[in-house]
Amino acid sequence: MSGVRLGRYLAERLQDLVLENSDVQDFLRELAVFSAGFIGKATGQHMLCTVTLVRERRPMAGAESCPEGEPLAKIQRSAGQSPSLAALESGVAVSVPDTRSDTRWPRYSRAATRAGRHSILAVPLVLDTGAGASVTFLAAEPEVFEGQARMICEAFAGRAGKAARQAVRLSASRDLNDDLREAMKSRTSINLASGILMGQSRCSQEEAFAILSKVSSNRNVKVRAVAEELLRNFDKGAGSTHFDG
Asked: Of 11, 92, 115, 198, which residue is least crowded by CB atoms under 10 Å?
């Protein structure tokens, strides 16, 4: 396959991953599997691939191309250190020529060695401000990611980063829409409950909301939950709107 055709195939396949996976976690998993297969064929090495994503106000997300990578992901989360995170934070590729002698991330390197992975290359993916990601390749042989193999991985990461950036943007848009829908639901419930209190207790809107807020505070639940309870009771024909805090 020519370089132009290969580039077109890669761009289209990565775009498909974005379009076919509505959830960002599913996208990361599919990206890890595809990356391992693509780089494995390109380098002639059996690859394990992991993908790490961090976003503001969101827990760290990640995925592995196969179950072998799960212990590595657990160590990364617990220790907060790994080649993947180092590449993500520094913005430059991080290479581990031989996990048996590298001392920068001892727990991670030991786990990689136990998994039969002796060389690592972690490459950052360029995302929008407020997010960061990296794709990490682990090979069985030491010193795999030198010369051409490293160039292949870094070129691949450049294209994968564009797909990841789109996936994160779509996820952020969906999250925003979900948050707005929840906010509208809360506002509607609270407004309706306030209206019931205003009608039955002959109080102002501010006083009605103050009643809901007091019950919310006393019960340590959200105002929306208090409002929805009042609405349920009202629908059942309850004769009282009094709440016991």
From this structure: 92
